[in-house]
Amino acid sequence: MDQQDIRHDFGLRPIINVSGTMTSLGASIVVPEAVSAVAAVLPQFVEIDDVQKKASQVIARLCGTEAGFVTASCSAGITLAVAGAMTGSNLAAIERLPDTTGLKDEVLILSGHMVSYGAPVEQGIRLSGAKVVPVGQATSARAYQLDGAITEKTAAAVYVVSHHTVQYGLIPLDEFVAVCHARGVPVIVDAASEYDLKGFLATGADIALYSSHKFLGGPTGGIVAGKTELVRATYLQNSGIGRGMKIGKEGMIGTIAALEAWEKRDHAGIRERETGYLKLWHETLNGRPGVTALIEPDPTNNPLDRLKVFVSPQEAHITAWDLADALASGPSPIIVRDHEVEHGFFYMDPCNLHPGQETIVARRLVEELEKARQSNEVIATSLERRRNRRAEAQMRWPN
Ligand SMILES: *Cc1c(COP(=O)(O)O)cnc(C)c1O
């Protein structure tokens, strides 16, 4: 390991991330512009409302909207935006939350959007004191169901754009907005991990929420963007339930710097570099016994592809999940994207690599696959045992 690597000083494993932008792995590589802005502001005093005014201008420009601010996370943004829709600018109501007595407090969400990004989306809604009203079924939702769920108590509707959600049979965002707006219900879009900063608000949605620390390469934070009145009501929650979700000056300034860098980012050049990594791994894997790799586009149309790697245990002498675990061990641990590994495949995401790591990844793939081929038996841990081992490790923390 590189002696300059701070992970060495803390006894942390020098993982290589081909999983994607994961909170559990430290999110993303923060862009140099944000790193230096964070370091420069940390020793200075600033007037926070003025920093947030500056953030508002930059967010408005990049998102093609009226206003915005930075909070602790996208998850915090969900809670605060729902709170803002319930209280408006009523400071007394803001201080009373999560007691919603006298307020509209029902929040609609499609059943197929009630997913977990590491915590349940609907808990982020309930944290404000709001009541969650699921609409439709897990894999189907129609406009009449949404319309029929709106009552005089409806405060807002939350729409989730993510690979985690059900990807078919649900109401598209523009129709969702049209139904809600016809009944005077504001729409809050959770677009935490999406590259498109303008498209969701362009449907007429009132607020869009993004994570600073995902594709933008900012420090940990959440971006709230949208129409001035609701953004202001959301911002005012900082003197209520938002206090425990506060972000510091470094998170605000770092997010502004990351947004400004995003405007100048060489999107085509970065895509080309990522495509090069995928081609290298594809060439490395194809033709190996029991391994089939193919390049697949992102399910929510972000401008990125991933390599989908199928492993046939009989021929490769190892299961997809045992290969994932083997890659994650040793002195150069590689973490793949294994959310669906029970189906016999994992993904490799090229977005969070430092140049040069792609060849380490290719070498480790070859090493582990050749080792497995030499094994007389198929390396096959039971999935249940693997799952239980992870759950037990979690319950043993910090030991
Ligand atoms: C990551 C994610 C979140 C949470 O974002 P944080 O900023 O990490 O709190 C919320 N919703 C979706 C769809 C996500 O992917």
TrEMBL record:
Superkingdom of this protein's organism: Bacteria
State the InterPro entries in the record.
Aminotrans_V_dom (IPR000192), PyrdxlP-dep_Trfase (IPR015424), PyrdxlP-dep_Trfase_major (IPR015421)
One Pfam family for this entry, by name?
Aminotran_5
List the molecular function annotations (GO) for this entry: transaminase activity
Q: Where is the Aminotransferase class V domain?
A: 82-233
Could you identify this protein by its name?
Answer: Aminotransferase class V-fold PLP-dependent enzyme
- Keywords recorded for this protein, A-Z: Aminotransferase, Pyridoxal phosphate, Transferase
Names of required cofactors: pyridoxal 5'-phosphate
